[in-house]
Structure prediction request, 171 residues.
Amino acid sequence: MADNERKGAMTERDDDVDEAVAAFHDLRQTVERFGAHISAEMTIVRKGVELAFEEFEKFQETPGDGENLLRIAEFLVGMNQRIDLIARSPILKNGPDYFVRAFERGGEGMMATAVQQSELDNREFRRHLLELRHLTRDARERRLQNIYLWFVGAIGLVVGMVAALIVAPSL
Prediction:
């Protein structure tokens, strides 16, 4: 019985390790996916800046008209607003180290939660195991009590029959 409990504990530990490996793998994939998103945003920013310089160069080639200057000013105001929005982006402000730390904290929290849940499940399993042991023991005791009851009943029947045989002729 002790060997079965040890084997059960070992399989639970193996399951816990498998869950931890799966959680770490999921965390790693998430970090890689966010890295790809950061790279894509940086590419978009770079293309936007290149486009702005190309447009700016086009407007510089045609000197003189007030209407062109107005369009250039409007374009630059719009580009300035876009660049401000991009500059306020948390990805550019915080940098990749910030997000790596955030993912590490998230992973640690996820692992702590998984461990706590595993411990809760283990406690609940042990509680159910003890309850099952008590129920089994009670069932065995009832079965033994039933055997004793039948045995005493049979002895009582035999004693009653013998007593009836002994007392009946004397009446």
Summary: The two ends are 62 Å apart (CA to CA).
